[in-house]
Amino acid sequence: MPVSAGDGTHILVSGRVQGVGYRYFAAARAKVHGIVGYVRNLPNGSVEVVAVGPRVALAYFIGDLERGPSGGRVRSCQVAAIPLTEQFSEFSVRY
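Given the sequence above, the corresponding structure tokens read:
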């Protein structure tokens, strides 16, 4: 069931998060928690996540993002509520 316009969660992750499988880690954890949205690398070396799901599931998902994959090192996760401008039916890795 697609999730459309409404509230989403924007997460900006910084640290050693590119080249360590972070996007695939995030996608796997999103699937576990029933989160839809996307993850992508940004040119400045950080990773952007847009996530939609139940509040409790989002809290667990964000906790996973703060830990990151074993090869990475997360320095910070900035979390903010955002209005959604597109529909999501799954969690995807964007390039």
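The chain is about 25% helix and 40% strand. Try to locate this feature in the token string yourself.
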